[in-house]
UniProtKB/TrEMBL annotation:
It catalyses: tRNA(Trp) + L-tryptophan + ATP = L-tryptophyl-tRNA(Trp) + AMP + diphosphate + H(+). ATP binds at K10, P11, T12, G18, N19, G163, K164, D165, I202, K209, M210, S211, K212, S213. SUPFAM superfamilies: Nucleotidylyl transferase. The keyword Manganese does not apply. It is an enzyme of class 6 (ligase). Belongs to the class-I aminoacyl-tRNA synthetase family. Catalyzes the attachment of tryptophan to tRNA(Trp). Its EC number is 6.1.1.2. This is Tryptophan--tRNA ligase. It comes from the Bacteria. Homodimer. It comes from Sorangium cellulosum. The keyword Nucleotidyltransferase does not apply.
Amino acid sequence: MATTVLTGIKPTGTPHLGNYVGAIKPALALAETASKALYFVADYHALNAIHDAQKLRGLVLEVAATWLALGLDPAKVVFYKQSDIPELFELSWILSCFTAKGLMNRAHAYKAAVARNLGSRGGTASVDDMDDLDAGINMGLYSYPVLMAADILLFKTNVVPVGKDQIQHIEIARDIAQRVNTVYGPTLVLPEARVSAETAVIPGLDGRKMSKSYDNTIPLFLPPEKLRKLLFKYKTDSSPPSEPKDPDTSPLFHLYREFATPEETEALRGRYRAGIGWGEAKEAVFDVLNRALTEPRRRYAELMAEPERIDALLAEGAARAREIARVTLEETRRTIGVR
Ligand code: ADP
Ligand code: TRP
Protein backbone atom coordinates (compact mmCIF):
# COMPACT_ATOMS: atom_id res chain seq x y z
CA MET A 1 0.00 0.00 0.00
CA ALA A 2 1.22 3.49 -0.78
CA THR A 3 2.10 5.23 2.47
CA THR A 4 2.26 8.94 3.13
CA VAL A 5 4.45 9.89 6.07
CA LEU A 6 4.26 13.37 7.58
CA THR A 7 5.66 15.10 10.61
CA GLY A 8 5.97 18.63 11.99
CA ILE A 9 8.89 20.10 13.85
CA LYS A 10 8.10 22.91 16.25
CA PRO A 11 10.80 25.59 16.10
CA THR A 12 10.92 26.45 19.80
CA GLY A 13 14.58 25.73 20.62
CA THR A 14 17.99 24.95 19.19
CA PRO A 15 17.97 21.29 18.09
CA HIS A 16 19.90 18.98 20.43
CA LEU A 17 21.29 15.43 20.45
CA GLY A 18 18.02 14.04 21.86
CA ASN A 19 16.06 15.54 18.95
CA TYR A 20 18.47 13.96 16.51
CA VAL A 21 18.42 10.47 17.94
CA GLY A 22 14.73 10.43 18.93
CA ALA A 23 13.17 12.29 16.04
CA ILE A 24 15.36 13.36 13.13
CA LYS A 25 17.24 10.11 12.54
CA PRO A 26 14.16 7.83 12.63
CA ALA A 27 12.12 10.25 10.49
CA LEU A 28 14.83 10.38 7.83
CA ALA A 29 15.01 6.58 7.83
CA LEU A 30 11.23 6.33 7.50
CA ALA A 31 11.24 8.75 4.56
CA GLU A 32 13.47 6.30 2.69
CA THR A 33 10.78 3.61 2.68
CA ALA A 34 7.61 5.73 2.35
CA SER A 35 6.00 6.36 -1.00
CA LYS A 36 5.57 10.02 -0.03
CA ALA A 37 7.15 11.98 2.83
CA LEU A 38 6.25 15.50 3.95
CA TYR A 39 8.22 17.15 6.75
CA PHE A 40 7.53 20.71 7.80
CA VAL A 41 8.52 23.41 10.23
CA ALA A 42 5.48 24.13 12.41
CA ASP A 43 6.09 27.86 12.82
CA TYR A 44 2.44 28.76 13.47
CA HIS A 45 2.38 26.21 16.29
CA ALA A 46 5.43 27.89 17.79
CA LEU A 47 3.65 31.26 17.64
CA ASN A 48 1.52 30.45 20.67
CA ALA A 49 4.71 30.55 22.73
CA ILE A 50 7.20 32.74 20.86
CA HIS A 51 6.21 36.37 20.52
CA ASP A 52 9.56 37.70 19.38
CA ALA A 53 9.76 38.09 15.60
CA GLN A 54 13.52 37.84 15.32
CA LYS A 55 13.67 34.81 17.57
CA LEU A 56 10.97 32.97 15.61
CA ARG A 57 12.64 33.71 12.30
CA GLY A 58 16.02 32.57 13.68
CA LEU A 59 14.62 29.31 15.05
CA VAL A 60 12.84 28.47 11.78
CA LEU A 61 16.15 28.83 9.95
CA GLU A 62 18.04 26.80 12.58
CA VAL A 63 15.55 23.95 12.49
CA ALA A 64 15.39 23.86 8.69
CA ALA A 65 19.19 24.00 8.36
CA THR A 66 19.53 21.22 10.94
CA TRP A 67 17.34 18.79 9.00
CA LEU A 68 19.03 19.64 5.71
CA ALA A 69 22.51 19.32 7.23
CA LEU A 70 21.65 15.93 8.70
CA GLY A 71 20.66 14.52 5.34
CA LEU A 72 17.09 15.49 4.48
CA ASP A 73 17.00 15.46 0.68
CA PRO A 74 14.46 18.06 -0.52
CA ALA A 75 14.17 16.21 -3.82
CA LYS A 76 12.74 13.20 -1.96
CA VAL A 77 11.01 14.80 1.03
CA VAL A 78 8.53 17.62 0.56
CA PHE A 79 10.05 20.08 3.04
CA TYR A 80 8.18 23.32 3.81
CA LYS A 81 7.00 25.63 6.49
CA GLN A 82 3.48 25.54 7.82
CA SER A 83 2.84 29.27 7.42
CA ASP A 84 3.35 28.94 3.63
CA ILE A 85 0.29 26.69 3.26
CA PRO A 86 -2.89 28.85 3.44
CA GLU A 87 -5.09 25.79 2.80
CA LEU A 88 -4.17 24.57 6.29
CA PHE A 89 -5.90 27.42 8.02
CA GLU A 90 -9.11 27.00 6.09
CA LEU A 91 -9.18 23.28 6.85
CA SER A 92 -8.40 24.08 10.46
CA TRP A 93 -11.56 26.17 10.73
CA ILE A 94 -13.64 23.49 9.04
CA LEU A 95 -12.30 20.88 11.47
CA SER A 96 -12.92 23.09 14.48
CA CYS A 97 -16.62 23.01 13.62
CA PHE A 98 -16.51 19.26 14.15
CA THR A 99 -14.38 19.32 17.29
CA ALA A 100 -16.05 18.92 20.65
CA LYS A 101 -14.88 21.61 23.04
CA GLY A 102 -14.62 18.91 25.69
CA LEU A 103 -12.04 17.12 23.54
CA MET A 104 -9.86 20.23 23.66
CA ASN A 105 -10.39 20.53 27.43
CA ARG A 106 -8.77 17.11 27.77
CA ALA A 107 -5.68 17.85 25.67
CA HIS A 108 -2.47 17.47 27.75
CA ALA A 109 -0.87 20.86 27.17
CA TYR A 110 -4.08 22.71 28.03
CA LYS A 111 -4.76 20.53 31.06
CA ALA A 112 -1.21 21.05 32.32
CA ALA A 113 -1.60 24.84 32.00
CA VAL A 114 -4.91 24.74 33.91
CA ALA A 115 -3.35 22.51 36.57
CA ARG A 116 -0.54 25.06 37.07
CA ASN A 117 -3.11 27.81 37.53
CA LEU A 118 -5.11 25.65 39.93
CA GLY A 119 -1.93 24.91 41.88
CA SER A 120 -1.20 28.61 42.25
CA ARG A 121 -4.72 29.02 43.73
CA GLY A 122 -4.04 26.43 46.37
CA GLY A 123 -5.66 23.54 44.54
CA THR A 124 -9.35 24.36 44.85
CA ALA A 125 -11.59 26.29 42.50
CA SER A 126 -15.23 26.66 41.54
CA VAL A 127 -16.96 27.50 38.25
CA ASP A 128 -16.67 31.17 39.17
CA ASP A 129 -12.90 30.84 39.00
CA MET A 130 -12.91 29.68 35.36
CA ASP A 131 -11.31 32.92 34.14
CA ASP A 132 -8.48 32.55 36.61
CA LEU A 133 -7.89 28.93 35.70
CA ASP A 134 -7.44 29.97 32.08
CA ALA A 135 -5.05 32.79 32.96
CA GLY A 136 -2.17 33.12 30.51
CA ILE A 137 -3.66 30.54 28.11
CA ASN A 138 -4.19 31.82 24.58
CA MET A 139 -6.56 30.32 22.01
CA GLY A 140 -3.51 29.16 20.03
CA LEU A 141 -2.58 26.81 22.86
CA TYR A 142 -6.18 25.75 23.34
CA SER A 143 -6.89 24.91 19.70
CA TYR A 144 -3.37 23.66 18.99
CA PRO A 145 -4.66 20.11 18.37
CA VAL A 146 -7.11 21.30 15.69
CA LEU A 147 -4.37 22.97 13.66
CA MET A 148 -2.26 19.86 14.13
CA ALA A 149 -5.15 17.72 12.85
CA ALA A 150 -5.32 19.99 9.78
CA ASP A 151 -1.54 19.58 9.26
CA ILE A 152 -2.03 15.84 9.14
CA LEU A 153 -5.40 15.42 7.42
CA LEU A 154 -4.74 17.92 4.61
CA PHE A 155 -2.16 15.54 3.15
CA LYS A 156 -4.10 12.27 3.61
CA THR A 157 -1.35 11.15 5.94
CA ASN A 158 -1.12 7.49 6.93
CA VAL A 159 1.81 7.53 9.33
CA VAL A 160 3.01 10.27 11.68
CA PRO A 161 6.39 9.71 13.33
CA VAL A 162 6.32 11.52 16.69
CA GLY A 163 7.52 11.40 20.28
CA LYS A 164 5.38 9.71 22.94
CA ASP A 165 4.05 13.06 24.15
CA GLN A 166 2.36 13.62 20.79
CA ILE A 167 0.32 10.40 20.65
CA GLN A 168 -2.71 12.13 22.12
CA HIS A 169 -2.63 14.71 19.36
CA ILE A 170 -2.71 12.02 16.68
CA GLU A 171 -5.63 10.38 18.48
CA ILE A 172 -7.42 13.72 18.45
CA ALA A 173 -6.78 14.07 14.71
CA ARG A 174 -8.31 10.61 14.22
CA ASP A 175 -11.32 11.53 16.37
CA ILE A 176 -11.96 14.69 14.39
CA ALA A 177 -11.56 12.89 11.04
CA GLN A 178 -13.91 10.16 12.19
CA ARG A 179 -16.49 12.72 13.22
CA VAL A 180 -16.40 14.27 9.71
CA ASN A 181 -16.55 10.82 8.11
CA THR A 182 -19.52 9.84 10.26
CA VAL A 183 -21.47 12.85 9.08
CA TYR A 184 -20.54 12.80 5.35
CA GLY A 185 -19.22 9.30 4.64
CA PRO A 186 -15.56 8.46 3.99
CA THR A 187 -13.83 11.80 3.39
CA LEU A 188 -10.69 12.09 5.50
CA VAL A 189 -7.90 9.53 5.90
CA LEU A 190 -7.29 8.29 9.47
CA PRO A 191 -3.64 8.70 10.51
CA GLU A 192 -1.59 6.50 12.80
CA ALA A 193 1.21 7.52 15.18
CA ARG A 194 4.62 5.88 14.88
CA VAL A 195 6.65 6.26 18.04
CA SER A 196 10.36 5.47 18.06
CA ALA A 197 11.60 2.93 20.59
CA GLU A 198 11.91 3.83 24.26
CA THR A 199 15.63 3.01 24.05
CA ALA A 200 16.07 6.07 21.86
CA VAL A 201 15.45 8.44 24.78
CA ILE A 202 18.72 10.29 25.22
CA PRO A 203 19.64 11.36 28.75
CA GLY A 204 20.75 14.94 29.33
CA LEU A 205 23.67 16.34 31.32
CA ASP A 206 21.84 15.78 34.63
CA GLY A 207 20.72 12.23 33.79
CA ARG A 208 17.07 13.18 33.17
CA LYS A 209 15.66 13.03 29.61
CA MET A 210 17.53 15.56 27.48
CA SER A 211 15.08 18.40 26.98
CA LYS A 212 15.21 22.13 26.46
CA SER A 213 12.73 22.45 29.33
CA TYR A 214 15.32 20.98 31.72
CA ASP A 215 18.19 23.08 30.41
CA ASN A 216 20.35 19.95 30.18
CA THR A 217 20.84 19.69 26.43
CA ILE A 218 23.81 19.35 24.12
CA PRO A 219 23.11 21.36 20.96
CA LEU A 220 23.96 19.47 17.79
CA PHE A 221 26.34 21.84 16.09
CA LEU A 222 28.66 23.19 18.75
CA PRO A 223 32.27 23.74 17.72
CA PRO A 224 34.35 20.68 18.74
CA GLU A 225 35.96 22.29 21.81
CA LYS A 226 32.61 23.45 23.18
CA LEU A 227 31.10 20.03 22.54
CA ARG A 228 33.94 18.40 24.45
CA LYS A 229 33.59 20.83 27.35
CA LEU A 230 29.87 20.21 27.62
CA LEU A 231 30.28 16.43 27.49
CA PHE A 232 32.63 16.69 30.44
CA LYS A 233 29.74 18.22 32.41
CA TYR A 234 27.77 14.95 32.29
CA LYS A 235 26.89 14.04 35.85
CA THR A 236 28.76 10.91 37.02
CA ASP A 237 29.24 9.26 40.41
CA SER A 238 32.44 9.36 42.45
CA SER A 239 33.48 5.73 41.96
CA PRO A 240 37.22 5.36 41.29
CA PRO A 241 38.45 4.54 37.74
CA SER A 242 39.45 0.99 38.65
CA GLU A 243 35.93 0.04 39.81
CA PRO A 244 33.84 -2.01 37.30
CA LYS A 245 30.88 -0.02 35.95
CA ASP A 246 27.50 -0.99 34.56
CA PRO A 247 27.30 0.21 30.93
CA ASP A 248 23.55 -0.29 30.75
CA THR A 249 22.73 2.29 33.40
CA SER A 250 25.30 4.82 32.18
CA PRO A 251 23.92 7.79 30.21
CA LEU A 252 27.34 8.25 28.63
CA PHE A 253 27.34 4.69 27.36
CA HIS A 254 23.84 5.18 26.03
CA LEU A 255 24.99 8.19 24.05
CA TYR A 256 28.09 6.36 22.80
CA ARG A 257 26.00 3.47 21.49
CA GLU A 258 23.95 5.79 19.28
CA PHE A 259 26.99 7.01 17.38
CA ALA A 260 29.47 4.12 17.50
CA THR A 261 29.72 0.94 15.41
CA PRO A 262 28.55 -2.32 17.08
CA GLU A 263 32.21 -3.37 17.45
CA GLU A 264 33.12 -0.09 19.13
CA THR A 265 30.13 -0.44 21.43
CA GLU A 266 31.15 -3.94 22.50
CA ALA A 267 34.71 -2.78 23.10
CA LEU A 268 33.56 0.07 25.34
CA ARG A 269 31.23 -2.32 27.16
CA GLY A 270 34.31 -4.40 27.98
CA ARG A 271 36.18 -1.38 29.26
CA TYR A 272 33.25 -0.44 31.52
CA ARG A 273 33.22 -3.96 33.01
CA ALA A 274 36.98 -3.88 33.56
CA GLY A 275 36.81 -0.44 35.17
CA ILE A 276 37.02 2.83 33.27
CA GLY A 277 37.61 6.39 34.46
CA TRP A 278 34.72 8.75 33.73
CA GLY A 279 37.15 11.10 32.00
CA GLU A 280 38.13 8.32 29.60
CA ALA A 281 34.48 7.42 28.97
CA LYS A 282 33.72 11.07 28.19
CA GLU A 283 36.67 11.27 25.83
CA ALA A 284 35.39 8.17 23.99
CA VAL A 285 31.93 9.69 23.62
CA PHE A 286 33.41 12.91 22.30
CA ASP A 287 35.40 11.03 19.66
CA VAL A 288 32.45 9.18 18.14
CA LEU A 289 30.12 12.18 18.39
CA ASN A 290 32.59 14.53 16.83
CA ARG A 291 33.27 12.06 14.04
CA ALA A 292 29.56 11.79 13.23
CA LEU A 293 28.91 15.52 13.45
CA THR A 294 31.88 16.99 11.61
CA GLU A 295 30.31 16.89 8.12
CA PRO A 296 26.80 17.95 9.20
CA ARG A 297 28.33 20.81 11.22
CA ARG A 298 30.09 22.07 8.11
CA ARG A 299 26.91 21.86 6.01
CA TYR A 300 24.91 23.55 8.76
CA ALA A 301 27.34 26.49 8.90
CA GLU A 302 27.17 26.83 5.11
CA LEU A 303 23.37 26.91 5.11
CA MET A 304 23.12 29.35 7.99
CA ALA A 305 25.46 31.69 6.13
CA GLU A 306 22.98 31.73 3.23
CA PRO A 307 19.47 32.01 4.67
CA GLU A 308 18.11 32.88 1.20
CA ARG A 309 19.00 29.36 0.11
CA ILE A 310 17.01 27.89 2.99
CA ASP A 311 14.08 30.19 2.15
CA ALA A 312 14.20 29.14 -1.51
CA LEU A 313 14.22 25.43 -0.61
CA LEU A 314 11.27 25.88 1.75
CA ALA A 315 9.36 27.87 -0.88
CA GLU A 316 9.84 25.11 -3.46
CA GLY A 317 8.64 22.58 -0.91
CA ALA A 318 5.58 24.69 -0.13
CA ALA A 319 4.67 24.88 -3.83
CA ARG A 320 4.74 21.07 -4.05
CA ALA A 321 2.82 20.67 -0.80
CA ARG A 322 0.11 23.07 -1.96
CA GLU A 323 -0.56 20.96 -5.07
CA ILE A 324 -1.69 18.19 -2.74
CA ALA A 325 -3.33 20.58 -0.28
CA ARG A 326 -5.55 22.22 -2.90
CA VAL A 327 -7.01 18.87 -3.93
CA THR A 328 -7.93 17.77 -0.41
CA LEU A 329 -9.33 21.16 0.50
CA GLU A 330 -11.46 21.29 -2.66
CA GLU A 331 -12.81 17.79 -1.95
CA THR A 332 -13.58 18.72 1.61
CA ARG A 333 -15.31 21.96 0.62
CA ARG A 334 -17.52 20.08 -1.81
CA THR A 335 -18.28 17.45 0.79
CA ILE A 336 -19.53 20.00 3.31
CA GLY A 337 -21.44 21.97 0.69
CA VAL A 338 -19.17 24.96 0.20
CA ARG A 339 -18.23 25.80 -3.40
P1 ADP B 1 12.37 19.15 24.04
O1 ADP B 1 12.05 18.08 25.04
O2 ADP B 1 13.79 19.54 24.07
O3 ADP B 1 11.42 20.32 24.16
P2 ADP B 1 10.74 18.52 21.80
O4 ADP B 1 9.62 18.23 22.72
O5 ADP B 1 10.69 19.73 20.94
O6 ADP B 1 12.12 18.52 22.64
O7 ADP B 1 10.96 17.22 20.92
C1 ADP B 1 11.04 17.18 19.51
C2 ADP B 1 11.26 15.74 19.12
O8 ADP B 1 12.49 15.24 19.65
C3 ADP B 1 10.18 14.79 19.65
O9 ADP B 1 9.89 13.83 18.66
C4 ADP B 1 10.82 14.14 20.85
O10 ADP B 1 10.32 12.86 21.09
C5 ADP B 1 12.28 14.08 20.44
N1 ADP B 1 13.12 14.18 21.65
C6 ADP B 1 13.25 15.23 22.46
N2 ADP B 1 14.11 14.97 23.47
C7 ADP B 1 14.53 13.71 23.29
C8 ADP B 1 15.44 12.85 24.00
N3 ADP B 1 16.07 13.25 25.10
N4 ADP B 1 15.65 11.60 23.52
C9 ADP B 1 15.02 11.19 22.41
N5 ADP B 1 14.16 11.93 21.71
C10 ADP B 1 13.90 13.19 22.13
N1 TRP C 1 3.00 19.22 18.02
C1 TRP C 1 4.25 18.70 17.47
C2 TRP C 1 5.35 18.87 18.55
O1 TRP C 1 5.20 19.64 19.47
C3 TRP C 1 4.65 19.41 16.22
C4 TRP C 1 3.63 19.25 15.12
C5 TRP C 1 2.81 20.21 14.61
C6 TRP C 1 3.33 18.04 14.43
N2 TRP C 1 2.03 19.68 13.65
C7 TRP C 1 2.32 18.35 13.50
C8 TRP C 1 3.84 16.75 14.51
C9 TRP C 1 1.78 17.38 12.66
C10 TRP C 1 3.30 15.79 13.66
C11 TRP C 1 2.29 16.09 12.75
O2 TRP C 1 6.39 18.24 18.45
